[in-house]
From TrEMBL:
Homodimer. PANTHER family: HISTIDINOL-PHOSPHATE AMINOTRANSFERASE, HISTIDINOL-PHOSPHATE AMINOTRANSFERASE 2. Pathway: Amino-acid biosynthesis; L-histidine biosynthesis; L-histidine from 5-phospho-alpha-D-ribose 1-diphosphate: step 7/9. This is Histidinol-phosphate aminotransferase.
Amino acid sequence: MGMAMIKARDELAAVIPYPLGPPPEAIQKELGFKRIIRMGDNENPYGASPLALEAAKRALENRSFYPDGTYSLLYQALGRYHGLPEGYFVAGNGSDEVIRLLTRAFISRENEAVMADCTFPRYKTNVLIEGGVPVEVPLKNGMHDLEGMLAKITSKTKMVFVCNPNNPTGTIVDKKDLIEFFKKIPENVLIVIDEAYVEYVTHGEMNDAKVILSQYQNAVILRTFSKIHGLAGLRVGYGMMDPKIGNELKKVRDVFNVNRIGAAAAAVSVNDSAFIDLSVKKNKIERAFVTERLEQMGYTVLPSQANFVFVLLKGPAKQAEAALAQKGIFVKGIVAPGYPSAMRVAFGTREENELLLEAIREYSVEGVM
Ligand SMILES: *Cc1c(COP(=O)(O)O)cnc(C)c1O
């Protein structure tokens, strides 16, 4: 029995589902690898806070009950960490969801949103879903071109995204330049600063969330528990913003959008500075090590302040990605304006990084990458 084609909303014609290949676990099984090295999703190779895992286990005991939809304990913990009142926080099922809530609440058809090209792809997708217009400004020397972005702000602009450090390039924008940029953004434009990797920055100062929010009521700062906190599988992220903006997001969110286990783990992880500090320290050492070795092999890499590095390749990106996967090493091949072939590689443990470098050396000699 045939079914008539049901037409989806017009806006979706421009949207493609996020390209998900077979999961590393499936490839591991298929090729019979004893272990795999996950360097494609910027996860933390050192696990997660043991205190957070304890909290998650305790929360699992109450799995039959809905979470506290006010997320009060989480917001109190975040409030202590950031020095902000509870009302400044909106949690999401990953900060991916907070991006979705922002576009849902603020982007109407034909509103424009200015962003870098390339940057985190979810900004563009979510703007398109609402019928908005993504205005993409190419990176300049691998960094956000703030001047170029300002030049694109018009009466139609509703939102501007700055990913800092930027995914996938790992580059940061200067603290002072960012403030100068904020000053020039009209008050009726939402400034979204995505700080998914900010904890990893060790060079150059970052702006303090509390200071930014006290000076710019149109600013929103995004953070996640998926990266340095090592809780990607639990799906928790959050935004910090003036409560007036937050209240609009709360209108469009699902009531229990963050699960009980993730919320409990996050509330503890945020204040486990021992685990975070250790991760920062190890990452800094591995970042220097991998960068130096890649440069010795003749690769150009962008200066990273994150837990991954953007490497310019000599062969096609997809080919490099596939070749490394054949050795059980998962990275992200990237093709972007100005970067016809590149890959983003998250740093692993020293042992994992040695295996990565060995594989790259081999493929480099063969002319694969
Ligand atoms: C990983 C990432 C996120 C969101 O991650 P969630 O798992 O949804 O919290 C947001 N922004 C950037 C730039 C990221 O790299």
